[in-house]
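Form P-L/3: holo structure prediction, ligand nicotinamide-adenine-dinucleotide.
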Amino acid sequence: MRCRMYRVEQVIGGVWGAGGEGGELTVHDPADGSPVATVPVATADEVAKAVEAARGAAAEWTATPPAERAAALHRAADALASTAEELAAATTAEMGKPLGDARGGVEAGIGTLRQYAELGPVRGGRTLHGGAAAIDFMAPEPRGVVAAITPWNDPVAVSCGLLGAALVTGNVVLFKPSERTPATGWLLTKILDSTLPAGVLSLLTGGAEVGAALAAQEVDVVAHVGSTATGRAIAAACARTGAKALLENGGSDPLIVDAGVDPVWAATQAAIGAFANAGQICVAVERIYAHRDVAEDFVDALVERARALRVGPGRDPGTELGPLVDRRHRDHVHGQVTAAVAEGATLRVGGTLPDGPGAFYPATVLTDCRQEMTLVREETFGPVAAVVVVDSFSEALKCAADSPYGLAATVLTPSMSHAQRAWRELPVGTVKVNAVFGGAPGGAAQPRRGSGQGFGYGPELLDEFSTVKTVHIEAPGGGHW
Ligand code: NAD
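OUTPUT (holo model):
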């Protein structure tokens, strides 16, 4: 049972409730279509004023000792922990994921804030060895004004990463959460803002046009987590203003199922990778290359897993597969599935639109898929496993590498030499061997090609939000040392 309707407010230049002259959006619960939140839409003029106000707050925040900035993040993490349930409920109400997953996202966000609070103050520069009467060093500095534009699929975890790293390194931040999860973004901003000096963090709400207006401003960094098409538009905007573009974008991650693996275990891994969060994870398994030796048993077990998933609203404790984020997205997913079937793919389970309210879509497995199908080449972002049968590990590697994206890949194999070949040969930022998820904390990778540019996570994100000044100091002439 949902208990409240959220009335989102912006914060601009430290003033809550500012602006919103661009109209109002309503967010609907994807489980039943009921309204969840009303959201003000920023005008381009409000966006420009917010950037100006943020720039005005930058000097003081930059001059604040890193340990004080870090203490604010620790306080925010504490506050987040005490409101975790509320934030998880908002996430589930807005985008549909099972409540347990939403809690996991909040926990991850808390962990990230704490990690950056610890790492921020201990960062240093380098000293250089030059002339004996000189001192040379390289000191990190904040970049200045950061625009953080985020998606809806894991809204707390992703936003905490960008906001935590940008703030602890001394930047002021304009935060534009997804128009599909604005109440979650608003609750998170209220928590962070309560621990920060007024004006250091601003919240702008609205849709793509608000993000575009922000990316067009003369900020110092535009950090975007979201789709590849948006990332490319942001890169073009940054090329015009000179801002740095940090882009963590879409993917079409392959899973290779090698000969010799236990097909039932492989199917469990594939099901987690393809169906968790209804497939709405950037590193979800999107396409599967199964060796002919194990393909049949593997597909049978995967179909069984898909059938066994408990479907329902995310707020029901037993739910394993919630709805998709909305019907617009469901149309996109179903469009790719029906196109693949029209091109010769075979539906083994799922693939039909259910009756009833909400944006539910069944866990779907297709075989007889081919590399050139849009379902295989492009990001689906739904609970869909597209299986291509291959005759050798080399063929699987070749197909896996053939993609406009380069986010991550998983290989299930009993062979150490195949594992070694996989991590050396696959042109992606992250390679996982024998587990679809579960990387070590602090992990960061550089996405490639259509998946973006720059580190979006881990300690390296602190460097992305910093610049370096090199200083050379010599003794003055005239013997004044
Ligand atoms: P999206 O790019 O449509 O939206 C993300 C944000 O960008 C939103 O706040 C949106 O309003 C804003 N936006 C949209 N158009 C814009 C424009 N022209 N200029 C500036 N801002 C604009 O993405 P989404 O649908 O919210 O998220 C799903 C996508 O995010 C998937 O492709 C997924 O793979 C990707 N994603 C990637 C990662 C990663 O780490 N690589 C993590 C999570 C999600």
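COMMENT: The mean pLDDT is 97.
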